[in-house]
Amino acid sequence: MIRSANPDVIRPYLTDASNLTGGYASEVVFPENEKEVIQALDEACRTKTPVTIAGNGTGLVGARIPFGGIVLSTEKLGGLREIYQAEGDSGYAVTGPALTLKQLQDAVSTKELLYPPDPTEQNAFIGASIATNASGARTFKYGATRRWVRRLKVVLSTGDTLDLRRGEFVADEENSLFLKGSKNSFELKLPHYRMPEGKHSAGYYVSPGMSAIDLFIGSEGTLGVITEIEVGLIPKPQGFFSGVVFFDREENAWQLANQAREESLKNRTAGAKDQIDASAVEYFDSHALEILRSSYAQIPQKAQSAIFFEQEIQAGTGKHLAQQWLQLCKSYQALSDQSWFGQSPKEHAEFRMFRHAIPVLVNRILRQYRQTKIGTDFTVPRKHLFDLLELYRQKLKDSGLRYCIFGHIADNHLHVNLLPQNNEESVRGWQLYRQIARQIIAWGGTISAEHGVGKMRREYLSDMFGQSGLMEMSLVKKKLDPCLILGRGNIIPEEFLNG
């Protein structure tokens, strides 16, 4: 096993995309197989040395940044191990945790297959995407990562290993979960809090009759180290009809997105073919478009908002679907003549690049002012979507802070990025974040839909699940990580683990 205490080797593991500062560690270890993972954890457990599991540094909540102890890098545990394809149907892939999402998609695409989850950051390791139950634009049709994970191998801090297949080891009517590891058996009392409706990636997952595998998906490196993964695949779509639709009023974009969502859900449920059934519906407010204009001068000057959509098409259906989408755009006074539509792979790739350009440009602005992004990851129940949009508009306008809004409007999940230009604005930004978070919770929403909790959102998790919920989570962790070394500082505040 490779290991290093060289400060120059350690330094890259003290940062991630969250820009959280102050991290430190005594060593980085690089296990190359499961046996070496067990060896590293066994040593750390005996010495009570905290272990922070590191992926590819794409996380936004500081989960991989250590504050003491050692870093266990998963980067040498990658490698695509198998792609299985059923004849003319779906399949699955088996991989280590350090394969990037792009590498996985490229590999399965050669076999005309698709891994449906679509997180924006394609350089993320698949293990990390499972650790946060990541999602993305296509979650609207295909659900988050959780839905596609079929099997996990996990090494616990004691060196015990779990081989978890979906449907095995399910919770009983008493909310208890029994697990059998390579050395020991475990009985867990699951938390009793109620999960929010919709996309959710905050704290340990619980639901009646849940499969044990779901406890580890979204656990952010606090329960074990994932060493092998099996995910489901579907046939690759033949093509897409997609577009970026511009509006001169934000409300028109809201209404079109809502109508596209309702028609998509209705047609999907009915199994209707050749009808509107979007796989993604994404929103940009006027401030997001203003930032994008620095790279896309062709954005119409009158545009105050935009919607990106995509829909899978089969041979011969593109023209019919294009007519339906164009009629929908017309119904909500879109700037149709100035909007962008296309069916070719090149056009689709360009539209998706437009969608993914905004986070990159936001980070460029923040680096200019040497500030950390204040970004929301909130989702609300469907009935509160328009309440959410109005809340954002009013609160942000009144704040006087620079901001932009974009994201997964079909999932009631929009990212507000506050862009402070100095420390005083940053303080005001976090105060506003807290106010909005409390309203989201009051509406039955979640503080984290896809990025996780990490170290930066723990206090908001307490607002959501209360002290009792955090205590119940800590009891689960203590059962599976009795050494209390894994992911210290992530999800569960230290006071719930001490004593």
Whole-number mean pLDDT: 95
Radius of gyration: 23 Å
Instruction: Give the helix proportion (percent range).
Output: 25-40%
Looking at the overall shape, the CATH architecture of the largest domain is: 2-Layer Sandwich
Q: Indicate the proportion of strand residues.
A: 15-25%
What is the straight-line distance between the termini?
Answer: 33 Å
Structural class: alpha+beta
- What is the approximate shape? globular
Number of strand segments: 19
In the CATH hierarchy, the third-tier topology of the largest domain is known as Uridine Diphospho-n-acetylenolpyruvylglucosamine Reductase, domain 3
Low-confidence stretches: none
Number of domains: 4
Counting H and I runs of at least 4 residues, what is the number of helices?
A: 13
Query: Which strand order spans the largest sheet, edge to edge or round the barrel?
Result: 16-13-15-14-18-19-17
- In the CATH scheme, the class of the largest domain would be Alpha Beta
Biggest beta sheet attributes: 7 strands, antiparallel
